[in-house]
Every structure is written in C-alpha cells, then in structure tokens.
Automatic annotation (TrEMBL), chain A:
It is found in: Cell membrane. Gene3D superfamilies: MetI-like. It comes from Natrialba hulunbeirensis JCM 10989. This is ABC transporter integral membrane protein. InterPro entries: BP-dependent_transpt_permease, MetI-like, MetI-like_sf. Keywords: Cell membrane, Membrane, Transmembrane, Transmembrane helix, Transport.
TrEMBL record, chain B:
It catalyses: Ni(2+)(out) + ATP + H2O = Ni(2+)(in) + ADP + phosphate + H(+). The lineage of its organism: Archaea, Methanobacteriati, Methanobacteriota, Stenosarchaea group, Halobacteria. GO terms for cellular component: plasma membrane. One of its GO terms (molecular function) is ABC-type nickel transporter activity. One of its GO terms (biological process) is peptide transport. NCBIfam families: oligo_HPY. This is Nickel import system ATP-binding protein NikD.
TrEMBL record, chain C:
Residues 40-67 have a biased composition (Acidic residues). Residues 36-70 are annotated as: Disordered. It comes from the Archaea. Keywords: Signal, Transport. GO terms for molecular function: peptide transmembrane transporter activity. This is ABC transporter periplasmic protein. InterPro entries: Peptide/Ni-bd (IPR030678), SBP_5 (IPR039424), SBP_5_dom (IPR000914).
UniProtKB/TrEMBL annotation, chain D:
Residues 98-319 form the ABC transmembrane type-1 domain. It comes from Natrialba hulunbeirensis JCM 10989. This is ABC transporter integral membrane protein. The lineage of its organism: Archaea, Methanobacteriati, Methanobacteriota, Stenosarchaea group, Halobacteria. Keywords: Cell membrane, Membrane, Transmembrane, Transmembrane helix, Transport. Its main location: membrane. It is a multi-pass membrane protein. The keyword Transmembrane applies. The chain crosses the membrane at residues 12-32, 102-125, 137-164, 252-276, 296-322. Belongs to the binding-protein-dependent transport system permease family. The keyword Cell membrane applies. SUPFAM superfamilies: MetI-like. GO terms for biological process: transmembrane transport. One of its GO terms (cellular component) is plasma membrane.
C-alpha cells in the first residue's frame, strides 16, 4: 500500500524531497548564518552539544580515574556544580529545595534540589548528554538502516523493492511510541534500559529514511554516470555504495537534523513513562517521570526539565529549518 | 496616427525594494497601444518586459512597487502621481482605486495570457469551471450563459469536443491545448486589450506556429489590441504591428515592425536580430550577443548597453540616452536611445571606441558598474528617485 | 473475612495483591510512631514524621438530616479494581472496598483493629480445645433480595472457600466443617486450633446461599452481588465505575445518610491529587507524601490518616552462594544507610519506620517491647561499622543487585546503593522493575543466583495477628510463594512459627513470636523498613469521614463511628 | 478507475501491511520474558501438572507458527485472544476502551485543523509581518514541546490554579445524562467539552503546530502560483482567491499529513491518557505492558496499527477525491 505517497518525510513539517543536491558546506553554512533564527538554532545546538560532550567526558573520566561516584568530578571544581548522582548524607543537604529565587531557596542550588536532595541544576546540565546522545545515536541507526534499505530497494526495484517497501510500511504503521515500548519491554525481558530505547527508536525511524533515500535513488538511478558504470561492468554493490548513496545524501542529511528533535521528543515520552533512561541517570524525561509525582508540591521540578527539552528541540528545529531553507531554494523567507 | 491611443504609458517606473538594494526593473518606459494593433515588447529575459506588462494592470506585488509615470487607458488613469503640497508624490485623485482596477479593468478591459500554460490553470478545478468563473465575473452573464459562452469559446480556439472537455481538468490537456484555453479565457472576457506574456515560449515550435496563427486570426476577427511580450524576434516579425525593444528596464528602440527590421536604429536591436535564426541566413552567420545582461539592481553607467555594445565609445559610458525620435514611418515615430544618432547632439563621433571583445564577455555585472550611477549623465535631465 | 494486600503498588495495578489475616483483642492505640524515628523533631522543631492520631476528627452531625439523605459521593480509588465482588472469590482490596458496603461481616473491625460482632450477636463460644466455635446471629436480617439471612447462609459462607476452590482457600483450609444448628446458630469445627482465628479469620462477609447455587449463579453474583449491607448494588461498568445506593430497609443502625456512592479509580497519584484539588471528585485514596502539606494547607480539602498493618521489608538472599548469606554482610548493608532518614525525608507524612517485623498497629494487640528492641537491635546508620563489617566479608568488586518496584521502594533501593558506592562498593546497583517481573525474578525464582538479586524490597499487609507476617514472610514453606530469602535460621525458628500458628493460647504464642522476631532482628534475613498509613483526602464538604486502618474498609461511609454525608 | 474501485484497491493494497503488523507483534510478544503461565497463575501454588494444563488451554505447548495460524484464524473471527491479567476477552476490552481514545484523537485533530488552517493562512498572507512571526513562534514551540508536559502544565494552570476545568477523566457523550446526574443533553454536551478541552489541546498542539507550518508553506507556495496570478489578472477578488483558488490547492498536502500524523497522535494518546487519567486504549496499553499481558498487548498493537492504516486509507481516498490529478490505481 502506498503509505506516504513519497511524503513520509512530512512527519515534522516541510517536505524535504525537493532539496537540490547543491551541497557546498561553506555555502550552506553561510546561508544558515544569514538567517537570524537559524543562527540562534545553531547556537543552541552548539551549546547543547558542547555541554553534553563536556559532561560525558567529565563523568567518564571521573569514573575511570577515581572510581566511586562520590569522588571528584571536574564539574564539581566549579562551585555551582554538584555531582549529578550524589545524594547528600543524612543530616546534610535538603530534599525538595525550591529554586534560588524562591523565598526558601538557596544560591548553592540555583534550581533547587530534587526529592533526594540532588542539585537540580547539575542534573539538568548533565541531562543534556543523555538526550543528545540518544537523539544522535538513534537517528544514526535510522539513518544507516534506512539508507541501506532505501538504496537497495530503489536500486534493484521490482520484487526486492516491493518486499522491502511492504516491510518498511509495516513498521511505519505502528505508532513509534507503542512499537518502541513493546520492543523495549519484550526484548529487554522486562528490564527496560536506555540502550533498548535507542535501538527501538532507531528502528522506527528506518522507514522514513528508507522512503526518502529510495525516491532519491530512483531519480539518481536514471542518470548517465550510473548507466555508464553499469555498462562498464561495475558490481551492483559498488554502484550503490560509491555512486547511488553519496548522490542521494543531501536531503536525508537535512531530514536527519530535523529528526533529532523528534527523537528527543519521543525518548522524553519513553523516559516519562519509565521505559527510557533509568534512575539515577540524569535524563530530562526520567526527571519528568519523577517530578510528575511532585507536580503539586514542587512545580519547579516539572518545569525545568520541560524547558530544557523545549529549548534543545527548538534549537534543532530552528537549525534544521535553516538548513532546509539554505538547501531548498523553493521558498525564501 | 491621429486617433487617441487605447493605452498610453508614460515614463513608467517600477522598482523592487529588496534587502540587497533597489531593483529598477522598469525604468521610465513610454509607449502607446492603439486600437486593433499588436504591439510587441521584446527583450532578453530580465529586461523588465513582464514587470512592465504586469504594471499595466497594477499587479505588482510586494516588494515591488510602481514608483512613477502614468498609465492611461481609454482616458482613465490606471496609474498617475502628482506632487502634493509638501512636494511629496501622491496618487492623483482621478487614479482608479484598487477595487476599480480590479472590477473595471482587469479581465473585462485588459486580459492576460501567461507564459506557462502548464501552471496557469488551477489543477483542482475543471477547465470549464475556471473559464466560466472568469466570464461570469467579467461579463455579467448568468451561470448558464457563461457556461455556453465558455463552450463556444473553447470551440472557437479550436478545442475539439468542447462540451466534454469543459468538464475535464487541466492535467488532461496538452500544453498547446491549455494555451488555447488561456486564449479562450482572454477573448471570452471581451477585453479591448490582451497582454500576451510570452504565450508561446513554453510550447514546441509546431504548436507555437499554430497558436500564433490562431491569435492572428482571432485578433482580426475580434479586433482586439495585443501587447505581445516575447524574446523572440521571429515571432515579432510574424505577428506584431509595432515593436518596443527593451533592455534593462528601458525601451531602447520603438518602431513599426518593418522599420525595426529594415532600418534598425539601435545596436542592441541589431544584435538581437543578428542572433535570430532566419531563413535568409545560414547558421554560421548567427551572431549571438556578447556578454550577459547585467542585473537591474546595478545597471552600468551611461548607456546601459555599452558594456556589450560593438559600437560603444567612451561617451557611451557617460551619457545615458533617452529614447528619442530619430525617424518617422507610417505615421508612427521611430525612436531609439543611442547617442550615435545626430538628434542627441553628443560628442559620440569624437569619442574613442571601447574594446568590447572577448574581454567584455568576462565582465561581471558588478565590475561593469564600477564608478556607479552618480557619474552618469542623463540626457533627459530626469531625477533619480532613490 | 480475610484479606492481605501486597503493599502499595502505586502507579498501576499488579497481578498479585493479596491478603491474610488475624484477629485480636487488645490494647488501645498509642502512638509509637514518634518514638521510633529518633527524636522525631528536626532543628526547627517541626515534626518530621506525623502522628496519625493528630488527625482523628470529632464526630459530625448534619444540621439538616433530610438534605444529608439526598447526598451522593464519588470516591476515587488508587488502583483499578479486579472487579470481583463475590467475597468468597474476590482477592483484591479495591473490589473489597466496594463489596464491604454491600455485605455485612460476621464480625467487623473497629478503628483499633479489634473485632466487633456485626451479624453475630456476641463473641463466639469456644469448645473442644479451641477447635469448635459456636456463633449466634441476629434475627431479622434481610438480604437485598428480601430473603432472611439465616445460620445456613453463615455456614455456607464458611464452607464456600473450600467447596468452590476459591483463591482464598488457603486462609480457611483449617475449617473442618460448618453447620447451622438452627436458624440463628452456627457451629464451626476446625481441624486444629488456629491462632489467628479469633483475631482475624472469623471476620467473613456473609453471602446468601440462594443466590450462589450454581456456577452460573456465582458468575452473575460476582458482578451483581446481593448482600445484607447498608448499600445496594446499583450500576456497574467494567473498569469504569461502580455505583451503590442506600439500602433504605437496612436492618442495623445507623442507616447511611449517603443516598448513593460511586467508586472510580485514578491510578496516577499526581492526577488523583489534581482531582481533589480541582474539586473533580469528593474524596481520593492514598495521599502521596509530598502532597500532604499542600492538601492539608488547602482550605477546601481535609486529609485523613490512619495507621495500617502494612509492612515494607528489605529482604536478603540468604543462600550460601550469595555474599548476603553471611549475616555480617547483611548487617553491613543495613548500617550503610539510614532508614530513619529515608522515611523522615521521603515518607514522613504517610509512613513510620519499623523496629520489628510487625507493624505498630499489630503490636497494639500484643505489646511487644518495640522501643527496647529498636534501641538494642535495629541497625542504625553507621558507615564506619558498615565498612568494617563488609571489609573482608566481600570482595572489593562485590556487585550486589537490590531489586525493587519503581515506587518509593525503588527510591530506597537507589538510596542504599548510593550509600554502598560511598563506602567503596562501586558495583552495587539498584534495579527497579515492573511488579510482575520483580516477583518473577525474586519470589517466584526457584533457584535465585546472587546475580538475580542479593536483596529485594517488597511489602505485605496483614492484620492484628503476627502470624500473617511470621508465617507468610518467614516460614520455609512459603519460599517461592510469598518470599525468597531461603533463611535457614536456628533449629527451632521455622518450627516455632508453625507451632504458634496452631495454638489457641495467645500467651504461648506471644512467647514463641518474641523469640522468632528477636532472631529476625539479630540475623536480619530481612530488615523491617517502614509501615504505610492509610490516607485519604476529601473535599471540605464531605463530612464525618474517618480513615480506617484496614485499606479494604475505606472509605467506610457508614459505621458506628461515622456516617458520611455531603454538605453542599 | 472509479473512486469505489480505488477504495477497494487501496484496501487490498493494505492487506500485506496488516499481515505484517500481526507478524511483528506476534514475534515481539513471543519474546516475552518470564513464563506467561507463571504470570497467569501468579500468587498460586502451582505444580507442573497445572502449568501443562494451562499451556494446553492457551495452546502454548505448540510451535510458534502453528500458534500464529491459530491466532490469525481467531483474529479473522474477531477474537483477539484472552487477557490473562484481566480474565476477559481482549476484543471486549478494546471495544470498551476504543471510544474514549477515538473521542480524544478526533477532537485533538478537530482542534488542530480548526486552529492550524486559519493561522497558517493568516501567517502566509501576512508574511514577515508581526502576525506571521508570532504564529511561527507558536508553531515552533508547538513542535518542540512534549505533549505530556503541555498536559501537566495545562492541568496545573487551568485545573488547579484557576479551577476552570477538570483535571482528569472524560465525560462520554454516549452515556445518558442521568448517569452523571446532569439535567439533560445540553449539560452533557457542555461537560463533555469541558472535560475534553485540556487533553485535546495537549494532544492537538503538536498536530496544530505541524499542520500550521505546512499550511503556511503551502499557502505561500500556492499564492505564488501562476493560477493565482491569472485569477488576479482577471479581477477575481482577493478573498475568493484566498478561499478558493489558493486554498484548495494548498490543502492537498495537509490531507496527506493528517493521515500520516495519525501515528504520532495515536502514540501521543498513550501519554495524554496517562496524564489525564482517561480510560482509553493508551492506558490499557500501559497497563497491559506493566502486567506483561501479552495477548492484550498484541491485540492493542494490532488494533492501533489497523486504525492508522484505515486513517491513511481514508486520507488517501479523500486526497484522490479532491485532487483530480490522481489517476486512481497507478499511484504509488
């Protein structure tokens, strides 16, 4: 069946299929920087990426070097940071402290603490790494899987195309959140974990990428140099890898950027329901899961992670929109 | 010719205000259209032909704007400015309002045939219903009568089985057939003037011939005036009575068609004619115009054609010639904007020729404008309105 | 009747809520709560752990009785009902909350967990060394179908559990026979003396024999029950709501004011609190700890609380192959974190810390010296001692898993693990699991390896008899059914538990249980954690509502101690 | 091909996908951890004999492919199996729970369409003016915010702080007013809307924002179309151009996206039903997952997948109905 009519890419907005293969990096970058909103998007993305890279290195280094979680992390060298997973010992530290601007708040916990007494600001900052790495990792899975399936399907056509496309449509037909939860719970044997979530999300994104790549391949396939390669006896596999895929890349790359935002949204939902990141990992969705129980007693616990998600996804969307505009001459705003 | 022209355009200026600067798409053109004649508007793409023709209907969209000049149609002012008490320009009181232009001019007085028949029809409505809608709107006919008129018109423009095809959608028509529909649309509104904006460009040559013959025939039958916008001198020769040659927003030559071809007064027209395939010449003799037309956002100083002009001299860089009458034929003036003609009284003859050879080919629009507009002298003493 | 509930599975229903019971005669309630959690006050003089008796509201009477008799109430339960309303087969507290209003008990509990006669006229006569009980019942009690409740209905009820292969059969399998002597006298014979009988087992809901003769009858009866209670079954939509109407011909006093009561559920606690704050429902069950203050401070809301026989425990894998088979390791873990601190900071409004394997309210019937035990035996937070005990007893790369459901128990597991990390056992991990998975991995795990779990956190709700806890949670016969610590214990440990169960003499039972409990505190096969209170919140317009210690008795709209009406 | 035949054609085309959905769910469900029988008998002392009896009863002793065939045969007769945890037929449960979910999803869509289309058009016609900027920012926030978070915030603001709207649950318009103690159908309708408002907005915001972005882009594109220029040149009033000439063309992609986004909306319903305590399929799904009620999980997944496929078919058919360019049949 014809789910999507080639417009599956529209899940999150503008159709990417007409993007021209005009893909000079500098040109693109310059165009993105020209647009005020896209530029802000880029800044946000850059900041979030930097934070996650920093916290990732920091937490890994401290684990490798010092062992115990309670040991020194570089972040703690800065007075505003605490360790994201440390619970203050009995008698020290307080639970559910409101943000600093609140009458009962304190400057040492600018955003307050969570119900276990952990510094919320630190946790929000460290939460970036989970969202971002999950976003990127699962988009990558979808991207690679989709590219392979789409390329093979589009290149060979016929039966292969039929079978692959039916499979892809089947995966697409089950709403991602539901498919991912079923996948996560069953495959993990009832102990969900962020790894399963990443793989699950990646799989549900394969169809979208496959569809885009396939339609690109269908147009690339007819081009002269492919004919020439075929005629000169180059193997199918090599044609696909060396010629077809690289030439179909541009629109998918744009789409991938936009998709990272969608991924973060879905993973937030998963973690909120308890099927994504598990405690005590600081993850925004997981923090919303915990803070949901405190929505009446400490509203701020729900507000901060939500804002963090909102800003991050907005950054990716703005940047993706800018990238799309830069690569797609159809509409100039 | 003594009669009042149907349409008079005087010093029309249309500009686009973009982030990159002001684009003077139409920069002070004047021409007339008399009843029953086909007037050509010729030039390369980007010369401002389409903007000029859309200006006549006040169909210029933001960021474009008509900034000066006067358009008079059958004695009514489609566009006209006057100086207010504080010296600022304001719209004249007798100028038609937007609503008046829409209801009294567009369609029923001046109709349009667009360039791209594939895109001009709305894909989700039947051909007939679109035709009928415009007829109803412009001719005050009842629904049924408009429908009958539409079918008659379709037959008139040579569409077989018009009753059936009336119910069909644009995608079921070929390009030529769609252009016939557009022609039927224009004629059915019974306007006095039809602006045909490159109506045959998108069609292949045989279809183009058929369409031109059809228009020729219908024009004589209905005695409608046409403004025929094209870049193709061949079409001009075939169909037009009088021709305006446009270059970079200006009319550089204006003459009855025969005069233009046999007594060309402007080097640009010459170049256009040389670049046109003609039965009396071999392919080898084709001589494309050197260089590319600069962008209207930064026109060259002096004569705008001078960077590409084989006859250019130093004076051409300086002097910006207006379109002056250099001869008269068939009762119409033959105007040209080139200072090599005596009426300009310039120092052309004494000026040193400029080498516009292979080097000029490479000249980018930007470098062609080095020195800027400030230096240019206008022979008409006109004001820059920036 | 007999009910046990596995403690407080918060967010969504789980497969196994259960029951078990006991009875009692006893001591009046004293608030032990405050004494256990250290000084009970922090520096600001605020109490960290609230005292439920502070929330004993005075009785209220309506000014306008007629208006009160017009009132209707919606009660939002905290979990979905299984929708089994036949007391013989029903196995969940939330269905029980409904059917307890439809049926009358032979005996019913008062607010101190004492049994009081209801259908029965008085306490039973005991004969044959505690194996024969004679009951006399009130005359003139009518079922909702108009038939009289007679002794044969009572006998039928006692026997039905076994005859119909009820899931509750195990709690009644000591009954040898029950028969009506005349219309108003019943004789029940037991196979052996049964300790908990008088404290809890004989509190059964009487069902009409005539309505449940065939399998089909019982099927119908299960979702359209007929009892003799103060409310009559009215309307029911599976998994949506149950509505009961006042029984205008109720045989006993008082007759309810409420004309109608509807039970709905909302399993999400934040959403439930939202409902009561927004005034969308009249009362909700189970107030979350952190919303207590918010609701208490809300002028439109009244909070209700009662101690309950709930019991949370941290139980260890005591098999020899597990490091936690070593009592030093168990004690080391217990010293590594502070239970008191956890309860004070996370659950201070809705729970109290424990010092023995029975909840304080159960002890109200028995009077074990819990304070003393706490001081002498309960492991307090002492990281140095923890390190000392663990050092050498386990390897440095020891990586115990503590499994728990994803609620407050998950938080506790996380807390314990963090503390173990702090003293250098970096490999310790908390595993929060769905309830079904958790049970599979722990209790139902026939051969649990040290990798499956070295400790787990679960809960149990019993009643006034210690047997509910001792037998189910510690006796070796219950391994793989209710627990999985595989604790072997001293020579007499399991025998004593079994013996206490089959004794009628409560003093002898006291002595046996004292030894068993002290051994548990000493050897720590499991660490008593905390006991949840039963909480409710109601709109201010809901009057004369009082929380009951047994969760299945709430919201208890009508009793000798309260008669709820809505004051609009 | 006529519209009817096209419909039949699309339905036939959907069959492999529907079968695919059953295969995927069946395979996933049979990877279920733990022993379903033990789950079923939880809390009871079981011996091997009982386990085997139950296995036979549920056919769990037979090979996977045989079980699949049995499952499919039953499925075709409308039997989706038996919920172990709830001890009820899965089909009954789904029928009972489908109403609230459909009510929620459909009203969220209605909300999204009713707001997105006018806003998109306004933004397109006032391009780069303040109105446009504001609505674009709203749309951007809309596509960047988790729906459940919007739900939580709406509850806190409108139900708790302001007390204007209920915080949870739905009032079903198909029940009698008497059930709720309402005076009549008018009050029933009013209360239905009051209860629906917050979850509808929470679930619909993402759809609204997505549709609005597409609507704006499409309208801008459509307004630049030659046919709009032509209509202007023939003196068609601007309102007619907007409402008829440009609008009709711009709606085509919207229809497709409405169908495809059904997948997001159905997934979002899980979260929204959880946050608002709505007894729909979404919450049933979460409960089924919690209790590993695998027959129920399979049933729900298949039904939701089917709902999506039906949704896409409906939108495809309406697309074909509106867009004359679709030549029924060779469109894929």
């Amino acid at each position: 069946m014809a789910i999507g009519e080639g417009q599956m890419g529209d899940r999150s907005g503008g159709p990417p299929e007409d993007v021209e293969a005009k893909f000079g990096w500098r040109y693109t970058f310059a165009k993105v920087m020209q647009d005020t909103t896209a530029r802000w998007g880029l800044y946000v993305v850059a900041i979030v990426l930097l934070i996650s890279a920093y916290t990732m290195i920091d937490s890994n280094l401290s684990r490798l070097t010092f062992g115990a979680v309670s040991d020194f992390t570089f972040a703690e060298a800065l007075p505003i940071f605490d360790h994201p997973e440390r619970i203050p010992p009995p008698g020290q530290g307080e639970e559910n402290v409101p943000p600093a601007f609140h009458a009962d708040g304190s400057l040492s916990n600018p955003l307050g603490t969570d119900p276990s007494g952990r510094d919320y600001f630190t946790r929000i900052v460290y939460g970036a790494q989970v969202s971002v790495s999950v976003g990127i990792a699962s988009t990558l899975i979808g991207f690679v899987g989709g590219t392979l399936i789409g390329a093979v399907s589009g290149y060979y056509g016929g039966r292969v195309d039929d079978v692959l496309m039916r499979m892809v449509e089947t995966v697409y037909a089950i709403p991602p959140l539901i498919l991912i939860i079923v996948f996560t719970v069953f495959v993990s044997g009832g102990t969900p974990d962020i790894t399963y979530a990443i793989i699950g999300v990646g799989i549900t994104f394969i169809p979208v990428f496959a569809r885009i790549i396939r339609s690109e391949v269908l147009s690339v396939r007819e081009m002269d140099y492919i004919e020439a390669a075929k005629a000169s006896g180059v193997k199918n596999r090599n044609i696909i890898l060396r010629h077809v895929i690289p030439n179909s890349f541009a629109p998918v790359l744009v789409y991938a950027t936009l998709q990272i935002g969608v991924t973060i949204l879905i993973v937030a939902g998963l973690s909120f329901l308890g099927y994504g990141a598990q405690p005590p990992t600081p993850d925004w969705g997981q923090m919303l899961n915990v803070s949901h129980g405190y929505m009446h007693s400490n509203v701020w616990l729900s507000i901060w992670p939500g804002l963090a998600i909102l800003i991050t996804i907005m950054g990716f969307n703005l940047f993706g929109d800018g990238l799309q505009d830069a690569l797609d001459p159809r509409i100039d705003d | 010719m003594s009669a009042e022209p149907l349409l008079r355009v005087e010093d029309l200026k249309t500009q686009f205000f973009t982030d990159a600067g002001t684009v003077r798409a139409v920069d002070g053109i004047s021409f007339e259209v008399y009843e029953g004649e086909i007037v050509g508007l010729v030039g390369e793409s980007g010369a401002g032909k389409s903007v000029a023709s859309m200006s006549l209907l006040r169909l210029i969209e933001s960021p474009g704007e008509i900034v000066g000049g006067e358009i008079t149609y059958k004695g009514e002012t489609i566009f006209g400015l006057e100086e207010g008490p504080d010296g600022e320009l304001r719209e004249r009181e007798d100028m038609l309002t937007n609503e008046e232009v829409r209801t009294r001019i567009r369609g029923n007085e001046i109709a349009v045939i667009f360039q791209d028949p594939m895109e001009s029809l709305n894909p989700v409505f039947t051909v007939g219903s679109q035709l009928r809608e415009f007829i109803e709107l412009n001719r005050d006919l009842s629904n049924g009568a408009a429908r009958q008129e539409a079918i008659d018109m379709l037959r008139e423009v040579g569409i077989p089985d018009p009753e059936e095809r009336y119910e069909e959608y644009p995608h079921q028509f070929s390009g030529g057939m769609r252009q016939r529909v557009l022609i039927a649309m224009a004629l059915a509104c019974e306007p006095s003037l039809i602006i045909a904006d490159e109506p045959t460009t998108a069609l292949d040559v045989t279809v183009e011939g058929q369409i031109i013959d059809l228009v020729d025939e219908l024009q004589q039958k209905y005695d409608t005036s046409f403004i025929w916008v094209t870049h193709d001198m061949g079409v001009v020769a075939e169909i037009c009575d009088r021709v305006n040659v446009m270059y970079l927003g200006e009319i550089v030559e204006q003459a009855p068609v025969d005069e233009l071809f046999y007594d060309t007064k402007h080097p640009y027209t010459d170049a256009l004619l040389d670049s046109m395939p003609r039965p009396d010449r071999t392919v080898d003799e084709l001589d494309p115009i050197t260089g590319v037309m600069p962008e209207a956002i930064s026109p060259p100083s002096g004569c705008r054609f001078h960077p590409r002009c084989p006859d250019a001299r130093k004076a051409c860089k300086r002097i910006h010639p207006e379109n002056r009458e250099v001869a008269r034929a068939e009762g119409y003036p033959h105007r040209a904007a080139c200072i090599k003609h005596d009426v300009f009284g310039s120092d052309y003859e004494e000026s040193v020729p400029i080498e516009n050879g292979a080097g000029a080919d490479q000249q980018t629009p930007a470098s062609a404008t080095d020195g800027g507009r400030g230096e240019s002298e206008r022979t008409d003493g006109g004001e820059h309105d920036e | 009747m007999t009910v046990y509930i596995d403690g407080m599975v918060r967010k969504l229903p789980d497969v196994s809520r259960r029951y078990v019971l006991a009875t009692g005669t006893a001591v009046s309630a004293t608030a032990i709560a405050g004494c256990i959690g250290g000084n009970g006050e922090d520096e600001n003089g605020e109490e960290d752990i609230i005292d439920p008796t502070d929330y004993d509201y005075d009785r209220e009477e309506p000014d306008d009785e007629d208006a009160a008799r017009e009132s209707t109430m919606e009660y939002t339960q905290e979990l979905e009902r299984d929708e089994d309303f036949d007391p013989i087969h029903s196995n969940d507290a939330y269905s029980a909350q409904v059917y307890n209003l439809v049926f009358d008990g032979l005996y019913e509990w008062d607010a101190g967990l004492d049994l009081e006669p209801k259908v029965a006229v008085d306490m039973p006569d005991v004969e044959r060394d505690g194996t024969r009980y004679l009951y006399e019942i009130h005359e003139g009690i009518e079922f909702h179908n108009g038939e009289e409740l007679t002794a044969s209905d009572v006998a039928h009820t006692f026997m039905a559990y076994q005859e119909e292969d009820s899931v509750n059969e195990a709690q009644y399998d000591m009954i040898e026979d029950a028969e009506a002597i005349d219309d108003y006298q019943v004789q029940v014979d037991l196979e052996h003396p049964y300790g908990p009988w008088e404290l809890q087992t004989m509190a059964i809901s009487i069902v009409p024999e005539s309505e449940r003769e065939s399998e089909d009858d019982r099927e119908e009866f299960n979702t359209n029950p007929v009892g003799s209670g103060p409310f009559v079954w009215s309307d029911f939509e599976f998994n949506e709501y149950v509505t009961l109407e006042r029984n205008d011909d109720y045989w006993d006093d008082p007759e309810p004011y409420l004309q109608e009561i509807t039970f709905v559920d909302n399993v999400d606690e934040a959403s439930r609190v939202g409902e009561i704050r927004a005034g969308d429902t009249d009362a909700i069950a189970d107030v979350p700890n952190d919303d207590w203050g918010e609701l208490e401070g809300d002028d439109d809301v009244r909070v209700h609380i009662s101690e309950s026989p709930s019991y949370m425990h941290l139980t260890f894998n005591c098999r020899d192959d597990a490091p936690t088979g070593d009592p030093d390791v168990r004690r080391g873990i217990c010293h590594a974190f502070s239970m008191t601190d956890f309860v004070e900071s996370r659950l201070g409004n809705v729970a109290q810390p424990l010092s023995a394997p029975i909840p304080p309210i159960t002890n109200d019937q028995w009077g074990f010296p819990l304070d003393e035990w706490h001081d002498e035996h309960y492991p307090e937070y002492d990281p140095d001692q923890a390190e000392e005990l663990l050092d050498g007893a386990v390897d440095d790369d020891w990586s115990p898993t503590i499994a728990a459901p994803g609620d407050h128990r998950g938080d506790l597991a996380e807390r314990i693990v963090t503390r173990l990390h702090e003293i250098g056992y970096e490999g310790a991990q908390a595993e929060t699991l769905d309830f079904g998975t958790l049970l599979d991995q722990t209790v139902y795990n026939e051969d649990p390896s040290p990798d499956d779990f070295q400790a787990y956190l679960l809960g149990w709700t019993g009643g006034p008899d210690p047997d509910a806890y001792m037998y189910n949670l510690y006796h070796e016969s219950q391994v793989g059914v209710n627990q999985a610590h595989f604790y072997e214990g001293s020579d007499s440990f399991h025998d004593d538990i079994a013996e206490a169960r089959e004794l009628a003499d409560q003093d002898e039972r006291y002595d046996l249980y004292e030894g068993v409990m002290l051994e548990i505190l000493e050897e720590l096969p499991s660490l008593p954690a905390y006991s949840f209170h039963n909480t409710m919140a109601s709109g201010e317009h809901v009057r004369d509502l009082h929380a009951h210690p047994m969760v299945q008795q709430n919201p208890r709209p009508v009793s000798e101690y309260g008669n709820v009406w809505i004051d609009d | 091909m006529g519209l009817l035949r096209y419909t039949a054609f699309r339905v036939v085309q959907a069959i492999p996908v529907l079968i695919g959905i059953t295969v995927i769910t069946f395979i996933l469900a049979n990877l279920a951890p733990g022993d379903p029988v033990r789950l079923m008998l939880q809390g009871q002392e079981v011996d091997q004999e009982v386990i085997e009896r139950v296995e036979r009863q549920y056919g769990l002793d037979r090979p996977l492919h045989e079980r699949y065939v049995t499952y499919m045969v039953n499925l075709l007769q409308g039997d989706l199996g038996h919920s172990i945890h709830r001890d009820r037929p899965v089909t009954d449960l789904l029928i009972q729970r489908a109403g609230p979910t459909l009510l929620l999803v459909i009203s969220a869509y209605a909300f999204a369409l009713v707001t997105a289309i006018p806003l998109g058009i306004i933004a397109a016609t006032r391009r780069n003016e303040p109105t446009d900027h504001v609505s674009r920012i709203v749309a951007l926030i809309g596509v960047s915010t988790p729906s459940f978070w919007i739900g939580i915030m709406l509850i806190l603001i409108f139900a708790i702080q302001l007390g204007w709207l209920p915080s949870s649950g739905l009032v079903y318009p198909w029940r009698s007013p008497a059930h709720y103690g309402y005076s009549g159908y008018l009050e029933l309708a009013f209360q239905t809307i009051r209860h629906l408002l917050l979850p509808m907005v929470a679930l619909g915001t993402l759809q609204m924002a997505t549709l609005m972005r597409v609507e704006r882009t499409q309208m801008i594109e459509s307004l630049q179309g030659e046919y709009v220029k032509l209509a202007r040149a023939y003196g068609v009033p601007e309102r007619t151009i907007l409402r008829k000439h440009a609008f009709q063309v711009a709606q085509l992609p919207i229809i497709t996206i409405v169908g495809l986004n059904l997948s997001t909306a159905l997934g979002g319903a899980v979260l929204i039903e959880y946050v608002f305590n709505i007894n729909g399929i979404g919450r049933l799904f979460l409960e089924a997952i919690q209790s590993l009620d695998y027959q129920l999980i399979m049933g729900i997944t298949i039904v939701i997948g089917t709902m999506f496929v039906i949704g896409v078919i409906i939108t495809d058919i309406s697309y074909a109905y509106i867009d004359p360019r679709v030549t029924y049949g060779d469109r894929d």
